[in-house]
Amino acid sequence: MVAEVAALAVARPLNLVRNEVINMITKRQGLVVWVKHHKYVKRLRRYGHLIYASRKQKYILLYVNQDDIEDIMEQIRRLNFVRKVDFSYKPFIDTAYQKKGEVEEKEYEVRSIY
């Protein structure tokens, strides 16, 4: 990947290269897999990037490519040691936050109109 970025930098201005590098990063999404026993963690490693495995609560957190998530969820659900599979809603949450003052100003504008 470093060679690809270097080749892009030679041919184009830096701001265009940065946009192309951001587009090359794969979109990932978390999967929470509830299992019957912790010994099956090794089997689930092949489906994605293992982030965390809880022994006490018997769940595993995997990161998977967003494009393949439906297929991988279906494959994991078919395994006999899996109780439940949930996916993370983090990619769908809007993270553009506002300051408290901006919200109050908007409310004041609405009140002053009526």
Task: Give an overview of the whole structure.
By secondary structure, this protein is of the alpha+beta class. It has a domain at 27-92: Lrp/AsnC effector binding domain/regulation of amino acid metabolism (RAM) domain (Alpha-Beta Plaits, 2-Layer Sandwich). The protein has 5 helices and 4 strands, in the order ααβαββαβα. It has helices at 2-11, 14-24, 41-44, 69-78, 100-113; strands at 28-35, 49-54, 59-65, 82-87. A 4-stranded antiparallel β-sheet has the order 2-3-1-4, with helices on one face.
Summarize the structure.
This protein has 114 residues and is of the alpha+beta class. It has helices spanning 2-11, 14-24, 41-44, 69-78, 100-113, and strands spanning 28-35, 49-54, 59-65, 82-87.
Which terms summarize this structure?
114 residues; alpha+beta; Alpha-Beta Plaits; 4-stranded antiparallel beta sheet; 5 helices; 4 strands
Write the layout of secondary structure elements.
Layout: H1 2-11, H2 14-24, E1 28-35, H3 41-44, E2 49-54, E3 59-65, H4 69-78, E4 82-87, H5 100-113
What does the largest sheet look like? 4 strands, antiparallel
List how many beta strands DSSP finds: 4
The SSE order reads HHEHEEHEH
Output the structural class.
alpha+beta
Oligomer state of the chains in this structure: single chain
Shape: elongated
What CATH architecture of the domain at 27-92 would you give? 2-Layer Sandwich
* CATH class identity of the domain at 27-92: Alpha Beta
Into which percentage range does the β-strand content fall? 15-25%
Helix-residue proportion: 40-55%
Q: In the CATH hierarchy, what is the superfamily of the domain at 27-92? A: Lrp/AsnC effector binding domain/regulation of amino acid metabolism (RAM) domain
Spatial order of strands in the largest sheet = 2-3-1-4
> How far apart are the termini?
57 Å
Predict the CATH topology of the domain at 27-92.
Alpha-Beta Plaits
Count of separate DSSP helical elements = 5
What does the radius of gyration come to?
22 Å
